[in-house]
Amino acid sequence: MQYGKTDDVFHAHGPFSKEAAEACAEADAWLKTLVPWLRARGYAIIIMADHGQHEVTRNNGTTAGAHGSASDLDCLVPLVWLPGVAPATEPCNTSSLQ
Questions:
Q1: What is the spatial distance between Cα 71 and Cα 98, in angstroms, rounded to a whole number?
Q2: What pairing do the DSSP bridges indicate for beta strands 79-82 and 63-66?
Q3: Which pLDDT tens digit goes with each residue over 60-78?
Q4: What is the pLDDT of residue 95?
Q5: DSSP characters for 35-54?
Q6: Across the strands, what pairs with 57?
Q7: Low-confidence spans in the chain with pLDDT less than 50
Q8: Which terminus of the chain, N or C, has fewer Cβ atoms within 10 Å?
Q9: Are 57 and 66 within 8 A, CB to CB?
Q10: Cα–Cα distance for residue pair 51/33, rounded to 1 Å
Q11: pLDDT confidence of residue 97
C-alpha cells in the first residue's frame, strides 16, 4: 500500500514545512489504525519511503521539495520492519504467567 499524500505535500511545500509536518501526522494516524489490523491477521509489515527530499527555494520565495541528488537528504530513507506474527486464534490465558 502507498500513502501518497506525504510525497505530494513534501514536493509542493518542502520537507521542512508546516504542511509536511501535518502530512506526517496524518500518515502516523493512518498507520496507527492499519498496522494493528494487519498484524492481527499475521502480516509482516515494511514501512519505508522511496526517496528522501531536500528543500529548494522557488523564484517567488516559497519552498518546495526536490530529490535526485547524491545528498544524504535525498538518498537516506527510513525503514521499519515488523515481522509477521501468528494471528490470534483463542484468548491468551495469562494466569499461568504469574
A1: 52
A2: unpaired
A3: 999 999 999 999 999 998 8
A4: 55
A5: HHHHHTTT--EEEE-S---E
A6: 63
A7: 96-98
A8: C
A9: no
A10: 24
A11: 45
Number of domains in the chain: 1
CA distances to 27, 49, 61, 64, 66 from 78, rounded to whole Å, are 14, 6, 29, 21, 17
What's the burial of 13, exposed, middle or buried (CB within 10 Å: 0-12/13-18/19+)?
A: buried
pLDDT score at 26 = 95
The sign one gets for the Cα dihedral 29, 35, 38, 41 is: negative
**Crossing angle (nearest 10°) for helices 18-39 and 5-13:** 170
Dig out the grid coordinates for 15 from the structure.
520537507
CA distances from 6 to 26, 41, 42, 84, 95 (A): 9, 26, 27, 26, 44
Amino acid found at 12: A
Domain that holds residue 77: 5-97
Gap between the Cα atoms of 44 and 48, Å rounded: 13
